[in-house]
Amino acid sequence: MDKLRFVDACTGEHFHAMSLIHALGWRDTYVDAVPADYMAREITNDRWVEVFRTNYETQNGVRGLLLYRENEPVSCLNYCRARVTNYNVGDICTFDNTAYAGWGEIASFYTLPSERGHGYGGLLFEEACRRMKAEGFENAFVFVLRENEKARRFYAAHGFVWDGTHAEIPFPPSTICVDLRYVKKL
Q: What is the pTM of this model?
């Protein structure tokens, strides 16, 4: 078995690795859902570096977690107390989580496309759920794009179910994607 380890994101190297994994995940996963011009303009390899750095430096409650195989990061996520306010100014995602205050949230989660199918994402996801439970969260949720059937099956396999709520994400000029909220008692 590969030598695997969890790493709490706290260095520039971690933030860059997470941003790259996010960008590659977006480009692979959302190619048919998100407008190509938005993807080309906005989804750069370093798009999230400063967001992750700010989350860490301000200790706003959003924690980055990576899974390394040997010395290579293969999967990453961000987890936190449910965000009832938008932490990232200018973000297009402005979910209303007021009814979920006090819940845990998986704010983002990606595995390198070339590393999918090895169970790495599942290990990382379960570790984040374990950590949220240890921090006292009784419930958690994650948003997943309606059209992302693979991710929906993944979350269901990990005990999450759609609770009937959703959020619309506008991509200029006229595309609207729909995120479904999947929930679980931890």
A: 0.92
